[in-house]
Specification:
- By secondary structure, the chain is mainly alpha-helical.
- It has a domain of about 140 residues.
- The chain has 20 helices and no strands.
- Helix 2 runs parallel beside helix 4.
- The longest helix is centred in the first third of the chain and has 33 residues.
- About 25% of the residues are buried.
């Protein structure tokens, strides 16, 4: 049943069996149908492998029948497909290796993928591909530019190259391919926003546009699986930051049923608590937030930050000291968060401490000046807005 539902694999086995039974006329017709189906099924890098296997099957078919004249173009084509597949997978692998090194400080005792790339004249190879007419080479170039974007993170030109190429080839990609590239670009935007020392309006605008594409084309899940919880929470917070509470709440109501049922109650509670906080309903927000307990990194960081703000708003200073120490310890000791996220949270904690000093000890001009300068550098618009408002009130 699984095989019949996957037409690519069904066609592969069907052709092998038709070949074995010498049903040549049916084979030739079915090969053409299988090739056309693959060509129009939508591209993800694995399609290159499927095309390679299909071409290899056809070479074998012609070879066993002494039809060598039908083989040369298939031989070249099958080689092109396996090269595109291997290099695409290699670029994805190297990006994953870098991500694991950055996020989890994990390095393997050897690194054959990187060594292979070091031994390869990649620039000459890519130049040759660009200068010649290879079918679907633009799909392959998406994977190459993704690799370059990761290697040259500060150079935003590769982000725009991918976005431009993706727009031109969007309809050629299957759902998995569309999802991978849109999320890749979103992650780049978010990292640039979080690591920037000033507000990056261009990346903020781009991230919102990409989230809209993600929702419009339902790219938040694949093969009827659940809406990824981290993406869901990121979209909600993005709407809360850069749009308004009504749009964020509307997104929550429209899409919560697509979330894994075991996560939905906690997501609803956290999102509701954050919305109530932005609306100034601090007691209602605290009532919900204080009851939450979920061992999910993104969730925990957002919840801890929200609780710190609520304790300040409600003057609950008995809770603040212990909560702040626990928050700092969690951020410093956690091995599951990247350096950028760690530094952003430590920045919040430092600014929060300075705010407490001014609140408890009276207006200290030097501390106030330092705090004002630090707040201007905060890339989280909700945090910056909250700190700015608290300073304005303390000055009164």
């Amino acid at each position: 049943m699984n095989l019949e539902e996957s037409k690519i694999f069904y066609n592969k086995h069907l052709l092998e069996e038709l070949d074995r039974r010498n049903l040549e006329n049916i084979y030739r017709r079915k090969y053409k149908e299988a090739f056309e189906y693959l060509e129009h099924s939508g591209f993800h890098y694995q399609i290159f492998l499927y095309l390679h296997e299909l071409k290899w099957q056809n070479v074998s078919f012609h070879l066993s029948r002494g039809e060598q004249l039908n083989m040369p173009s298939e031989i070249f084509s099958r080689s092109e497909q396996i090269i595109f597949y291997f290099l695409s997978d290699l670029f994805i692998t190297l990006n994953d290796i870098d991500a694991n090194k950055m996020n989890f400080n994990y390095e393997h005792w050897n690194n054959l993928p990187q060594k292979f790339l070091d031994c390869l004249d990649v620039k000459s190879l890519i130049k040759y591909i660009e200068q010649n007419d290879f079918k679907n080479k633009e799909i392959f170039m998406l994977y190459y530019y993704s690799f370059l974007m990761n290697q040259h993170f500060d150079d935003e030109k590769y982000f725009y190259k991918i976005r431009s190429l993706l727009e031109k080839n969007f309809d050629k990609l299957n759902k998995q391919g569309k999802m991978n590239f849109v999320i890749l670009l979103i992650n780049y935007c978010n990292f640039k926003i979080k690591s920037s020392k000033k507000v990056n309006d261009e990346m903020i605008k781009a991230s919102i546009e990409l989230y809209d594409i993600l929702i419009k084309h339902e790219l938040y899940s694949n093969n009827n699986s659940y809406f990824r919880t981290d993406i869901f929470l990121n979209i909600f917070i993005t709407y809360l930051k850069y749009r308004d509470t009504n749009e964020a709440s509307s997104f929550l109501k429209r899409n919560i049923k697509a979330i894994n049922p075991s996560h939905s109650d906690n997501i609803i509670s956290l999102c509701t608590a954050m919305t109530l906080f932005e609306e100034g309903k601090f007691k209602d927000s605290l009532s919900i937030a204080s009851q939450l307990n979920w061992n999910f990194i993104i969730f925990k960081l957002n919840l801890r930050k929200l609780l710190m703000k609520l304790n300040f708003e409600l003057n609950d200073f008995d809770e603040i000291k212990d909560a702040l120490n626990n928050y700092r310890h969690f951020v410093v000791e956690s091995g599951s968060i990247s350096e950028v996220i760690r530094n952003n949270n430590l920045e919040f904690i430092k600014n929060y401490n300075d705010l407490l000093k001014i609140k408890n000890n009276g207006k200290d001009e030097y501390t106030l000046k330092v705090l004002n300068e630090n707040i201007k550098k905060m890339n989280d618009i909700l945090d910056r807005k909250w700190f700015t408002e608290k300073i304005r009130m303390l000055k009164k």
